[in-house]
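Quick one - inputs below.
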Amino acid sequence: GEEVAQTPKHLVRGEGQKAKLYCAPIKGHSYVFWYQQVLKNEFKFLISFQNENVFDETGMPKERFSAKCLPNSPCSLEIQATKLEDSAVYFCASSQWGPGLAGSEQFFGPGTRLTVL
Amino acid sequence: TQLLEQSPQFLSIQEGENLTVYCNSSSVFSSLQWYRQEPGEGPVLLVTVVTGGEVKKLKRLTFQFGDARKDSSLHITAAQPGDTGLYLCAGATSGTYKYIFGTGTRLKVLA
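Output:
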């Protein structure tokens, strides 16, 4: 597709429940990035992929967060045993080229708002 | 930890005024991008700068990358209500595989 698609738009979970978010990158884009936006300002990098390979996962709280980008499937971000502080908007972005290159541009999806009660 | 500090954090101005937003770091970036985000949407790229000292213009917006590639500024001339939004800078360093976002500047332009 021509746009990054994210589903669902909203997700409500009770504390301790699992949450799974999906992202379909723009066709032809090799790089996928997940971010967490809290307090409407701060963007926290979580993980990046080059095709199905993890590129950088230094932002992931690994004990509860996991992510995959498998061929011919939407990418996914899964949170096991959600906590109140996981409440945020999760954005996915895709780009044709990797970070740091002159022609690289991230295209963002509309985000998934996760509310943990 | 790489940090990108933006200032000011909030800005409320009248239509027609000029403003400058700053993005500062102690790290050197191979590229730096500016985004604008509107409520309920993802950020949209405004510009990418890659060369120290580079200046780029996008209509009433002027972007500058510092000579040492550690800082950047965004200047808006004659601001309009349509400029209202969250402005974010994001940097990438050589050899890393991620973008670091700035702390954000929330701009409100009053008619």
